[in-house]
Amino acid sequence: MNLMLMGLPGAGKGTQAEKIVDKYHVIHISTGDMFREAMAQETPVGLKAKGFIDQGNLVPDSVTNEIVKERLAQSDVFQAGYMLDGFPRNLDQAKALDQINQDLNLNLDAVIDIQVDKNLLIDRLSGRFICRDCGATYHKLNNPTKVAGICDRCGGTDFYQRDDDKPETVKNRLDVNIKMNTPLIDYYQKAGVLHQVNGAQEIDQVFVEIDKILNAIN
């Protein structure tokens, strides 16, 4: 079984990926892992990628596609199947993946898109705040202080947010990802392999939905 996992930041993709691997034993392949492995092994395409990264440049799609093909050609993928995470990121890469699958005699069986409303994601991702006095970390939804405005650990009342956690930063990050994901969602919907699940539910319930989809195609 060969899968692709999609979802905006904060949608719970990492948690569901672990659950899928635990049950179905597919090989979880993230873009970062592929690059690190290719560069560590000093494969020809890994050295190409390293050249761009060392110069502070983005790795071109052509090199990324080569790294993906190199990874998907390995024997563990043929034995267990794959779950791609972070690739493809655009339509050109999606079409390249089609060609890679064709060359390797593989099929993409399902694209799982974990959907969560953007406003809920903003709350999830921008909810973290930190006590300036002792560094204790809280979350307004998942881990608030026991008494509002007072640090549980030191009794301090001065809190701050990191720039990355501020709502306006989070919103911009989500907007970029939505713009990037929308053409891919359309592409895989037309291909008949897209399955969308409600990621606003409890973690276990989200997996129940995913599990039903995977059971049907496995």
From TrEMBL:
Quote one Gene Ontology molecular function term: AMP kinase activity
Q: Which Pfam families match?
A: ADK, ADK_lid
List ligand-binding residues for AMP: T31, R36, N57, L58, V59, G86, F87, P88, R89, Q93, R162, R173
Sorted alphabetically, which InterPro entries does this protein's record hold?
A: Adenyl_kin_sub (IPR006259), Adenylat/UMP-CMP_kin (IPR000850), Adenylat_kinase_CS (IPR033690), Adenylate_kinase_lid-dom (IPR007862), P-loop_NTPase (IPR027417)
Q: Which residues bind Zn(2+)?
A: C131, C134, C151, C154
Q: What is its EC number?
A: 2.7.4.3
Q: Where is the Adenylate kinase active site lid domain?
A: 128-164
Fetch the PROSITE patterns from UniProt. ADENYLATE_KINASE
Subcellular location as annotated: Cytoplasm
Q: In which pathway does it act?
A: Purine metabolism; AMP biosynthesis via salvage pathway; AMP from ADP: step 1/1
At the top level of its lineage, which domain of life is listed? Bacteria
**Region (NMP), start-end ranges:** 30-59
Per UniProt, which keywords does this protein have?
A: ATP-binding, Cytoplasm, Kinase, Metal-binding, Nucleotide biosynthesis, Nucleotide-binding, Transferase, Zinc
Q: Which reaction does it catalyse?
A: AMP + ATP = 2 ADP
Positions of ATP binding: G10, A11, G12, K13, G14, T15, R128, T137, Y138, Q201
Q: Domains: what does the record tell us? A: Consists of three domains, a large central CORE domain and two small peripheral domains, NMPbind and LID, which undergo movements during catalysis. The LID domain closes over the site of phosphoryl transfer upon ATP binding. Assembling and dissambling the active center during each catalytic cycle provides an effective means to prevent ATP hydrolysis. Some bacteria have evolved a zinc-coordinating structure that stabilizes the LID domain.
User: Function of this protein?
Assistant: Catalyzes the reversible transfer of the terminal phosphate group between ATP and AMP. Plays an important role in cellular energy homeostasis and in adenine nucleotide metabolism.
PANTHER family named among the record's database cross-references: NUCLEOTIDE KINASE
Give the quaternary structure: Monomer.
Specify the protein name: Adenylate kinase
What is the originating organism of this protein? Answer: Bombilactobacillus folatiphilus
What gene is behind this protein? adk
